[in-house]
Design goal:
The chain is an alpha/beta fold. It has eleven helices and 16 strands. It folds into two domains: about 120 residues, NAD(P)-binding Rossmann-like Domain (Rossmann fold, 3-Layer(aba) Sandwich), CATH 3.40.50; about 180 residues, Dihydrodipicolinate Reductase, domain 2. Strands 14-13-12-11-7-10-9-8-16 form a nine-stranded mixed sheet. A hairpin with a 2-residue loop joins strand 13 and strand 14. Helix 1 crosses helix 9, helix 4 packs parallel to helix 5 and helix 5 runs antiparallel to helix 10. The longest helix has 20 residues. The chain binds nicotinamide-adenine-dinucleotide. The site of nicotinamide-adenine-dinucleotide has 25 residues, from loops.
Length: about 350
């Protein structure tokens, strides 16, 4: 591999701009070699705008290039697993958009392939890279034991924002698969271990898509800790709020960018964090930097495949609970006496 890895961005739709900008604005980290989209006009437009050397309409062509060392997968959800596996088999490192896959089983197959092919597989949970979220991850123990987390992510979409959103099998449902990974990854980060029980209800309020657009879930953790999650595609104005009840007080995170603890402002939104995450957001630069550190085998804050599998396991339980109307009990995999002691 040359000094910096060559990158192909696969899928040049809505979220790709932030990934493309993250790669092309950091030439010291990587070189943008290829853009790929089955709609070649999108691939060409992206190549021109972000300075890629070549545009392709097929994944195979990009994977055949020896100067492509890593791929960023920005495809519809149902293509994450097959394309990540194909890329890993071609020897390319993979940064895959959330959700990592449709199911934990697919996520495990991706991780096993990456391990066998000795490539990095990281999940693009962009919200981990917001400054307030990173601060919380690094300083959580100062707030005392976490008692409960209430997380809301409500947005308003007057119609499907991409054609595949209309089809439940391509969108893996809808709001739970699209925004569930954001909030449940946060809950996983602060709880550290995995839920013991999951209750979930979901409904569809609009006819222009087939999946659920409103969902609520309740998760029970060891040590009497609880989390509640509300997801909406019907909420105006938008709400992105996290309330964490700790032994020493309450932390409130607004828009992933501002952290207040017991009324004191701990992390303020940076001027560079005011862009929408779909619009060349700074957090994607940080995320991409972490991915290149992972490729270089250095310490990094990328969301690992193992964390991704745990999240998919929780998402599977949410889907099962909302489809069956029953509480889903999860076998304790991560929990043990030692890890419980370590839970702050
Ligand atoms: N991190 C975030 O906050 C965030 C935000 C939006 C979307 N996403 C995720 O990013 C992924 C893409 O979402 P989007 O909104 O950009 O979708 P999109 O539909 O706008 O973009 C997907 C692109 O993939 C292309 N494509 C489809 N099949 C292809 C194939 N077989 N080969 C090559 N190209 C193909 C489509 O032509 C399209 O341009 C989804 O998994 C979504 O969950 C993440």
């Amino acid at each position: 591999m040359s000094l910096v890895p060559g990158i192909a961005v696969i899928g040049c739709g809505r979220i790709s701009r932030s990934h493309l900008a993250a790669v092309s604005s950091q030439p010291e980290l990587a070189t943008l070699i290829a853009t790929v989209d089955s709609d070649i006009r999108l691939a060409r437009d992206a190549a021109t705008r972000y300075g890629a050397q070549v545009a392709f309409d097929s994944v195979d062509e990009a994977l055949a290039r020896s100067d492509v060392h890593a791929v960023v997968i920005c495809l519809p959800n149902h293509l994450h697993a097959p394309v990540a596996i194909q890329a890993a088999r071609a020897g390319k490192h993979v940064l895959v958009e959330k959700p990592m896959a449709d199911t934990a089983e697919d996520a495990r197959a991706m991780a096993e392939t990456a391990r066998a092919c000795q490539v990095v597989l990281a999940v693009a949970q962009c919200r981990r890279h917001f400054r307030a979220i990173r601060y919380l991850a690094e300083h959580q123990s100062q707030f005392g034991k976490l008692i409960s987390a209430q997380v809301s992510l409500g947005v308003y979409w007057p119609d499907a924002q991409a054609p595949w959103w209309r089809e439940a099998d391509k969108a893996s449902g809808l709001v739970v698969a699209l925004n569930g990974p954001h909030v449940l990854d946060f809950v996983q980060m602060v709880m550290r271990d995995d839920p013991l029980r999951v209750h979930a209800e979901a409904v569809r309020c609009n006819d222009f898509w087939a999946g659920e657009d409103e969902a609520m879930m309740l998760l029970a953790y060891s040590g009497k800790r609880l989390a509640s999650v509300h997801l909406s595609f019907n909420q105006r104005p938008v709400e992105n709020r996290k309330v964490l009840v700790f032994e020493r007080g309450t932390a409130v995170i607004e828009n992933d960018t501002q952290l207040v603890f017991n009324g004191d402002l701990i992390v303020a939104q940076g001027d560079d964090e005011k862009r929408h995450y779909l619009d060349e957001a700074i957090e994607f630069q940080r995320q991409f930097r972490e991915f290149t550190l992972a490729i270089a085998g250095q310490p990094n804050h990328s969301v690992s495949a193992d964390e991704g599998i745990r999240l998919m396991r929780t998402l599977d339980a949410v889907h099962q609970a909302m489809r069956s109307g029953r509480t889903v009990e999860l076998p304790a995999v991560v929990q043990d006496a030692e890890s419980l002691d370590a839970v702050p």
